[in-house]
Specification:
heterotrimer, A alpha/beta (about 280), B alpha/beta (about 290), C mainly alpha (about 270), A: about 280 residues, alpha/beta, 6-stranded mixed beta sheet, 4-stranded antiparallel beta sheet, 10 helices, globular, B: about 290 residues, Rossmann fold, 12 helices
């Protein structure tokens, strides 16, 4: 059974326009799922539906056997789905890193000694141990966001959701955050859902969902997704620069295969081509 | 307006030694009229401090070098900042957070009313309309709306309209595409080129995105630890691959590919824009086959 | 702007800095009580209190200038109170008379007395804030307020509000700086004009700031919910404060000071009576 499943879920903020329309999707344990869409496509609403911050108008979200329809299971769902939001500044409650990370476990009523262990574990997971006593105000964007991830990990969720968590970071910060979460997915088998509008971030995902106007318009492996260039552009998305250049080269008669996603791949294919000549 | 900085140095909290922090050190840089100039560097490298000098938001400190923007001498005690700011427009990161007025029209007109008090109402409306249409919005549809009921993308456009309404000759933009999705980014860069083709003579773009630099800029400067590391065309700058990586910076995809191809003995030698690179690579590979 | 240190906390490694925040708050209050207990014209009491301030400042490794600076802010208030005493105390022998102004010896003494009192109270308070970080003060207050739970005072919520307020001060300062610069770039002028004009000029700063604060609050609420926040029920607390031998010593010293002041008061009283 899937760890998280969404069954024909619709939701609207104002009861007029649906932010999410009839969405069904599943996420398996240990999977790395990416959800992409342009700004305002409804992808962030999905994150809030995953952990019960929004309640579906129709349809059902089930996490690890707990349904969002059951009021009592809300807490259980939030324990299992940890969400990291976009602005690192707006998700910290304390002026010292360890106090902030303690916030989640404190809410769960975890014993004092165990909270200390959890802080240690969470900070180690994001590689920020030496900042335990620091003030978040003095950290870089990427570091702040890693602290936010640690704050969520201290709750020991089964699913880690990044709700555009890299959108406000510089390239360095983006790289840091992605490295951390992708390592967690690989090494600790944390189920990962990355909601983003950066096409190059979804390259390594197991499964990609493309969202447009609150609907899922496309799903598949990154390779399958990137092959549908026109459809992506209709959804306000664009291929990563490497794919775009590959596309142009193909148009100009260079014999490259379809579905090139990264600059390394493109360089390799060009190398293969050169050797054939 | 030509911009010339000589040995510009700036220290935050200069008075208290414990927390004083040198943000710029002997920065010398010339930006000619008509350039589309890129400023690159990691967060905290001093690039924001530098550009905020250009319209006098940060004043040149005593004995800390000189700076002139067109006929304005920013080192002089008496510098007409108002006149300067009306001609050097500045777009901040997330500019939509500066909106405040009740209607879009009033917000866009804010700068105009501050700078050019003698304008007639008709002239004001004409200029506001022009600015709003330049950023790609429908004036009649949007002018009486509250800026806060617009979508994120529209808000940003209105904020830009509020800066270009005074038709500045120099436009400085600090990370203007941050948070935009790919299509929003592409449209925004198109808008910049449109502006560059009309009244904006010089564009200075602070960005982290190396592909944006190689695709759009005539020249660029790399800032590192408050100093200028190098200045030149994207081609010159990005040939220094190892050094850039050392500075924690990326290089554009085209520069990366050119480098890889060179290892294979193919010298593409494009100007690093995507289309020029694709053309020349195709010629080198397909041409070689025939 | 980024490195703005709000409040006046002066970080250092010292005996005073290491004291438990709760003890420091209580002892500061005790010190102020001692200052107020000094009876009229017992200037020896003030000398004792001043000596105490000097010793603590030295122990805390805080430059005395920093401590004195705290008086600057309320200098007007001190002078004002002293002048009032001078002008309106008509008891005692007249020293000087001019039209409706009469200055008496008692008035003069009272003025000096008020100056000493307020100055010492402010010095004591600033010693607390100089040697205790805002976060520790907030934690200390929370802990001291704990007994109020019995009268259903929402201690936990109050503490959370303080913590969040402290956390967001640097963020909002940064934001204010940015908005001011953005509006200046659009020709806003905050420096000239009369009071009314200047207040009006702040509107383009205050409105975006307010809107941003609300946006942040909304996002923060979501983030807190997402981290399983559901009020104070069944909540544990990670941070724990511990008392050490230092706190015992400090309490003894302040206790001694109060005893001294009381002793001086009694001997003064006896001297008058006998």
């Amino acid at each position: 059974m899937a760890l998280l499943s969404m069954e024909k879920v619709s939701f609207s903020y104002d009861k007029k326009i649906d932010a999410v329309k009839n969405v069904s999707l599943t996420v398996d344990e240990g999977e790395y799922v990416a959800i992409i869409g342009h700004n305002g496509s409804g992808k962030s609403t999905l994150a809030k539906l995953f952990n019960g911050l929004c309640k579906p108008d129709s349809g059902e979200v089930v996490v690890d056997g707990f349904s969002c329809k059951d009021k009592k299971s809300l807490f259980e769902i939030r324990k299992r789905v940890g969400v990291v939001f976009q602005n690192p500044d707006n998700q910290m409650v304390a002026s010292i890193v360890e106090d902030d990370i303690a916030f989640g476990p404190e809410n769960l009523g975890v014993k004092r000694e165990e909270i200390g262990e959890r802080i240690q574990f969470a900070l180690a997971s994001v590689g920020m141990e030496e900042f335990r006593k620091s003030s978040p105000a003095r950290l870089s964007g990427g570091q702040k966001q890693r602290i936010a991830i640690a704050g969520v990990l201290a709750i020991k969720p089964k699913i880690l959701v990044l709700d555009e968590s890299t959108a406000m970071l510089d390239p360095q910060g983006r790289k840091e955050v992605l490295e951390v979460v992708e390592r967690l997915n690989k090494e600790q088998k944390t189920t990962l859902i990355n909601i983003t509008h950066y096409m190059d971030e979804v390259v390594r995902a197991d499964k990609v969902y493309v969202v447009n106007d609150g609907e899922i318009v496309l799903s598949g492996t990154p390779k399958e997704i990137f092959a549908k260039r026109e459809l992506l552009e209709e959804c306000g998305l664009e291929l990563p620069v490497s794919s775009k250049i590959a596309q142009k080269l193909i148009e100009l008669g260079v014999n490259l295969p379809d579905g090139i996603l990264t600059k390394e791949q493109l360089a390799e294919e060009l190398c293969v081509l050169k050797q054939k000549i | 307006m030509r911009i010339e900085a000589k040995d510009l140095t700036f220290t935050y909290s200069k008075k208290s030694k414990a927390i004083s922090n040198r943000a710029l050190e002997n920065v010398s840089l010339c930006i000619e009229e008509g350039e589309f100039f890129g400023i690159i560097g990691q967060t905290g490298s001093g690039k924001t401090t530098f550009v905020q000098h250009l319209n006098g938001l940060i004043r040149v400190q005593k004995d800390s070098g000189s700076l002139s923007v067109g006929e304005f001498d920013l080192t002089a005690k008496k510098c007409d900042l108002k006149a300067l700011r009306s001609r050097v427009g500045m777009v901040f990161q997330y500019p939509e957070y500066q909106l405040f007025a009740e209607t879009v029209k009033d917000d866009v007109a804010f700068g105009l009313r501050n700078f050019k008090k003698e304008l007639s109402l008709e002239e004001e409306e004409r200029r506001v309309k022009l600015a709003i249409e330049t950023v790609g919005l429908n004036y009649e549809e949007i002018k009486d709306k509250s800026p806060f009921e617009l979508s994120g993308g529209q808000k940003r456009r209105v904020a830009i309209a509020g800066v270009i309404v005074t038709e500045p000759e120099v436009l400085v933009l600090d990370e203007p595409v941050a948070g935009l999705d790919p299509v929003g980014k592409r449209d925004f860069m198109k808008l910049l080129h449109r502006l560059h083709a009309s009244f904006v003579k010089t564009i200075i773009l602070v960005t982290h995105d190396m592909n944006v630099v190689s695709e759009n800029c005539t020249r660029c400067a790399i800032f590192s630890h408050g100093k200028i590391h190098s200045v030149g065309s994207p081609k010159e700058i990005f040939s220094n691959y190892e050094q850039l990586i050392e500075l924690g910076l990326d290089i554009p995809v085209t520069a990366y590919l050119e480098r890889e191809l060179k290892k294979l003995g193919i010298d593409v030698d494009s100007d690093l824009t995507e289309s020029d690179f694709a053309d020349k690579t195709a010629k080198a590979i397909v041409g070689g086959k025939q | 702007m980024k490195d703005v240190t709000f409040g006046q906390f002066f970080p250092a490694q010292s005996f005073v800095h290491k004291l438990d925040a709760r003890i420091k708050i209580l002892l500061s209050i005790a010190f102020m009580v001692a200052v107020f207990m000094v009876q009229a014209f017992q200037f020896m009491g003030f000398v004792a209190c001043l000596l105490f301030v000097l010793v603590v400042t030295a122990l805390a490794k805080v430059p005395f200038g920093k401590v004195l600076r705290s008086i600057k802010g309320i200098l007007f208030f001190i002078v004002f109170s002293a002048v009032l005493q001078l002008l309106f105390n008509k008891n005692g022998t007249t020293l000087w008379h001019w039209k409706f102004i009469t200055i008496t010896d008692k008035g003069l003494l009272n003025a000096g007395f008020i100056i000493c009192k307020i100055t010492l109270v402010v010095l004591g308070a600033s010693l607390l804030t100089l040697t205790t970080s805002p976060v520790d003060i907030a934690d200390g207050i929370e802990s001291l307020m704990y007994p109020l739970k019995w009268i259903k005072f929402p201690v936990h919520e109050f503490a959370l509000i303080m913590s969040i307020a402290l956390r967001f001060i640097p963020t909002l300062l940064d934001e204010t700086d940015r908005i001011i610069k953005a509006q200046k770039a659009r020709g806003a002028n905050f420096e000239s004009g009369n009071v009314f004009k200047r207040a009006k000029a702040l509107v383009p700063v205050l409105i975006p700031l307010l809107i941003s604060a609300f946006r942040r609050a909304e996002e923060l609420a979501d983030a807190m919910d997402a981290r399983c926040y559901s009020g104070s029920k069944n909540r544990t607390k990670y941070k724990k404060m511990r008392l050490t031998w230092r706190d015992a010593i400090a309490t003894l010293v302040v206790g001694g000071l109060i005893t001294g002041v009381v002793f001086l008061n009694i001997t003064g009283f006896l001297a008058v009576v006998l």
